[in-house]
Structure prediction request, 245 residues.
Amino acid sequence: MSHTSHWSLWFRGRLSDIGTGQVNLYQRFTERADTFEAGLTTPTKDHPTPHGNFSRWAIGEHPLWLNFSNPTILNLNNTNWDPELVVVPENLKDDSWIYLLITATDIPFPNQNRNFVAAAHPIHLHGHDFAILKQSETPYPGPTVNLTLNNPPRRDVALLPAGGYLIIAFKSDNPGSWLLHCHIAWHASSGLALQILERQDEVVIEPGSLKETERVCRNWRSWFADTGNYWKAGDVEAFQDDSGI
Prediction:
């Protein structure tokens, strides 16, 4: 049986622009609405899982799967990303806010490639704390919801309740590549994570600061190229059986 939560919409704007009381998320935030689904992928003939024939936790179409020798920080000139890196570019102004709606059911976006059952996930964001605008143990009711906008609690981890939903927001004021993942270790290891690439053009790399990173990556590539080094010779799937985070 598959266990899944459902990654729903991202909204961009200013927290102060929301107003008070009930908010229709779809009407108020029209600049962008991307959908992401976090759950346990089920390999099928039409949707094979590339790293072993078994289910993995994921956000979007693919579980996160990192190349140990080629981290995001060495690829900031990229405009296209390997889907398995689950990079979400967010090139906003520093006074903008990113809103996330996360649900633990298939409401409002059914996914035919996953079975949806209730499962709670502690959601953790690197690089920011966030405002908790809504946290409910009941299913997501639709686009019009009551948000806590007057002094909402701020955290860097918040529980997505089983069968419920979570709405959080954070200000886009810290350029970098920030991991967002479930804090249950085997869920994250399986791939339940994504990277928010925030204001990519403004990430500052001091001259020479990545020399050690580049050296270690070169050494790893050289070692990894010899499949005889694997504990199961020649079997890359057995060598790296997790997401890399």
User: Anything to note?
Assistant: Confidence is low (pLDDT under 50) at residues 1-14, 16-20, 27-35.
